[in-house]
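Board notes (copied after class):
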Amino acid sequence: MLKSITWRIAMIVLLTAAAIVVLVPSLTDKIPAAWKDNIPKINLGLDLQGGVFLRLQVEIDKAIENTAQRYADDARAMCREKGLPVLAFQKAGADGFSLKFPPGEFAGKAQTALKDEFPSLDVTLGDVKPDHAMVIGRMKPAEVQSIRTNAVGQGVETIRNRIDQFGVREPQITAEGDDRIVVQLPGVKDQQRAIELVGKTALLEFKLVDESASVEDAMRGNIPEDSQVLYQKTADPTSGRVTKSPILVKKRALLTGDTIKSAKVNFGGQGGGAYVGISFDSRGAKVFDRVTAENVKRRLAIVLDDTVYSAPVIQERISGGEAQITGSFTPEEASDLAIVLRAGSLPAPVKVIQNVTVGPSLGQDSIRKGVRAAIIGGLLVVGFMAFYYRFAGMVANFALVFNILFLLAGMAAFSATLTLPGIAGIILAIGMAVDSNVLIFERIREELRAKKPVRAAIDAGYDKAIMVVIDTHVTTLITAIILFQFGTGPIKGFAVSLSMGVAINLFTALVCTKVVFDYLNAKKQMKTLSI
């Protein structure tokens, strides 16, 4: 018996020491750097430390248009490879395109080839006239529905990849409804930078500059059919002032950002500033090699989200599969651009329909109120247990201290995020811890009324209550797991603290309190028990 008590006391002491070591870095920074930097901490949620809250709307119809455009580009490239001349291209609604071919058998061959190459398209012959023939490609209904279904999910994953590389701890990025995404970024103070990082579509395209027509004529409305006017950003190196100037580029993209393998920030660009170096995968490197070989001495515009960042002259064929994006970037701008290029483009543009900055002062006020509520609730529970169960109640209060310590240490060990609902979960876990002791103490009272000795009454009380305590905790734990699995940010915070509290309650209620009674009985047989 004494050996068992010694073993349990040693285990509690070791767990207490470990809990203190893990918890201290979350409470203060006035500790050695090696301790502070190598121990995980409790992260504070958006409602406690402030940050940025964004609600985004995904423009799903644009995702359908973008996919149709990619099919059209791939179709024209395939026709070119097969020697089928395409005279013109135009959109055919949001989900299709049409290709114009010379008279003869070109259109029929193109229809057959497109059906074989693109099973997701319905390919039909359009107008057939003496001077041309049309082929129409339209996405099948199942393909359109798949895009609608997946646009939000892909958007969530793309934004999450960007935020993870941005370095925000414990962001909450969730789908809401059919076309919305909610983004919570705890600790982020620069709202505008967050919006630009999250909301940038990041569609990177390489397009030839159209030097066959003047920009002045284009600005007056005389734009060639296969060209478009975009704007190039330039920044004055001394004043930092950013200006935009029109530039005429071909509509057709020779290469897109989906072939990028890596993107990183380098220095030594214009004026020694930052630029983004990109490298392509094998397919992209092959296309880039061909594009540069065919267009030596022509300008190639590097376009991101319809903004031209640079338009250098291709001096020679580039076979290494690498390129640079320059544009008088600050280091932060270059870093953010590299992030979005690595994470990939969004499947559709997103529009910010709600943005809120939660100030740290509001978060501190929430912490104070939450801690105050926890202290008041805890004191009331402690007072009730001491008044109603006397000495046994004080034993339960003794275990309650360990309960709170182990719970906070557990959250720190798993780098859990503490939110206001999480504080509510901790308060509920404290109540459940006391509830377990109430069940045990009532059983002990029943045994004492049956005239059993104190030691036998204590053992019988724990034996009879243990299954009830386990049952109540397991059912609560199942509920907490369901809340965590299917809930959003605040609900997950509540579920995390509640589930940890439930697991720790079992230990403190069945081990910490019992070892006190066993120790007292082993030291001197108890004749009475104040309960």
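Comment from the instructor: The chain has a mean pLDDT of 82. The chain is about 55% helix and 20% strand.
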